[in-house]
Amino acid sequence: MVDSTILLRVRQIIVESYDIKTFVFEQLDGGKLKYEAGQFLTFLINMHGHEIRRSYSMSSAPETDEFPSITVKRISNGEISRFWIDFVHEGDIFTVLMPSGRFILEQSDGLPRDIILIGAGSGITPLFSILKHTLSTDTTSQVTLLYANRNEKSTLFLEKIEAWKTRYPERLHVIHIHSNPSDHWNGVRGRINNTRLEQMIRAAMFYQPERARFFICGPFELMRSVEITLHYLGFGKDQIRRENFIVGNPPAAPKESKAYEIRLIFKNQEFKLLIPADKTILQAALDSGIHLPYSCKGGVCASCAGVCKSGSVHMTVNDVLTDNDLKQGWILTCTGYPQTSDVLVEIK
Questions:
Q1: How far apart are CA 325 and CA 348, in angstroms?
Q2: Nearest Cα to 58, choosing from 155, 132, 129?
Q3: What does the pLDDT look like over 255-304, one tens digit per residue?
Q4: Among 2, 103, 290, 302, which residue is least crowded by beta carbons within 10 Å?
Q5: Which residue has the higher pLDDT, 249 or 105?
Q6: Distances in Å between the alpha carbon of 122 and those of 68, 159, 163, 190?
Q7: What is the C-alpha separation between 48 and 227, in angstroms, rounded?
Q8: For the residues of 106-161, what is the DSSP string, one character each?
Q9: Which residues pair with 145 in a beta bridge?
Q10: In this structure, are residues 260 and 341 in contact, taking their beta carbons and an 8 Å threshold?
């Protein structure tokens, strides 16, 4: 059983700066890619005879962009980013997993709410997708973007963001924070710290705090600091989504884990699968020739997510599922270990 993959052709390459490019894709079969703003694509890239999986958030939004796109920044000593920037051309074809990720905004119930996007550097990529989606579809909500960079020159999508401000002057509020600004910069100088963030969040709120939704993407320390500040201000876990670009080493199995046979539903087929004590559900499935979708294997991206219909599954790491997701039974198979003999997991 093979992965659920699609073939995408590079339709256009947009040079954003000397070290950043946007790649616009079209499906090889002529179909239209179905995805949600904030999701990502996982590319299966052959490098030196080995398959490497890399996930990239989409900078496009399905309601505003005819074709899906990703935006890639060259990383120092990064072989894969160098491949994208230096060697990928229009017309190249890639094998890609179906869009996934839970860095998405739930559908509006029609009542106004604040959507607050907080990012730094290339972390703007999925935030820009959500910004475009929200302004185009959720007509009652206010959108605030807090965007940190070194200076204007290093600010990705600067002109495009300004164009959206012009288009929605009453509903989009953008605050740029520059750590190393030019002499003529009249905006906020410095970095996003807890005190400054607290002031900005309070000033950004138009509606009831419990209806606000926050999306964070950037360096780990920034996201951790922002999340701590938001909890201090009284916002709940289900109001906050964060997207990780950095994945740590795969976590170890729980000390008291043991082998269980589970039932697994994938592509409308049910399998009986023995999960050894030292392996995750994902790894046991892959070892058995069941090619479940995955990317990070570290509990941060949700490519491997499934729903636990019965029994109990313990996750050693979960940096992406909210409390509400967990109540609905969602688990990460890449860090999930069965804890009972009656586990049934469905990969949707």
A1: 14
A2: 129
A3: 778 999 999 999 899 999 999 999 999 999 999 999 998 888 888 888 89
A4: 2
A5: 105
A6: 17, 15, 19, 18
A7: 39
A8: PPP-SS--EEEEEEEGGGHHHHHHHHHHHHHH-TT-EEEEEEEESSSTT-TTHHHH
A9: 117, 174
A10: yes
Phi-psi region of 212 (alpha: psi -120 to 50; beta: other; left: phi over 0): beta
Query: Class of the 5-97 domain?
Result: mainly beta
Beta bridge partners of 271: 264
Question: In sequence order, what E strands does 244-291 have?
Answer: 260-266, 269-275
Establish whether domains 5-97 and 260-347 are of one fold: no
Query: Which CATH number is 260-347 given?
Result: 3.10.20.30
**What's the CA dihedral at 176, 178, 181, 186 to 10 degrees?**
40
Collect all residues with Cβ–Cβ distance below 8 Å to 321 and sequence separation of at least 6: 102, 302, 305, 330, 331, 332
Between CA 109 and CA 208 the distance in angstroms is 14
Q: What is the mean pLDDT of residues 129-136?
A: 97
Q: Which structure tokens are listed for 161?
A: 């963001």
According to DSSP, residue 255 is labeled T
Distance of CA 53 to the CA centre of its chain: 15
CATH topology of domain 114-243: Rossmann fold (3.40.50)
CA distance 119 to 125: 9
Strand partners, 346: 265, 307
How far, in Å, CA of 317 to CA of 336, rounded? 8
Q: Do the Cβ atoms of 291 and 310 come closer than 8 Å? A: no
Q: Is 179 exposed, middle or buried (0-12, 13-18, 19+ CB in 10 A)?
A: middle
CB atoms within 10 A of CB 293: 20
Task: Locate 278 and state its tokens.
Answer: 């030292």
- Please provide residue 196's backbone torsions phi and psi, each rounded to the nearest 5 degrees: -65, -40
In degrees and rounded to multiples of 5, residue 289 shows phi and psi of 85, 15
DSSP E strands in 83-154: the ranges are 93-97, 114-120, 142-149
Pairing relation of β-strands 20-27 and 5-17?
Answer: antiparallel
Q: What is the mean pLDDT of residues 53-62?
A: 95
Q: Domain ranges for the chain, please list them.
A: 5-97, 114-243, 260-347
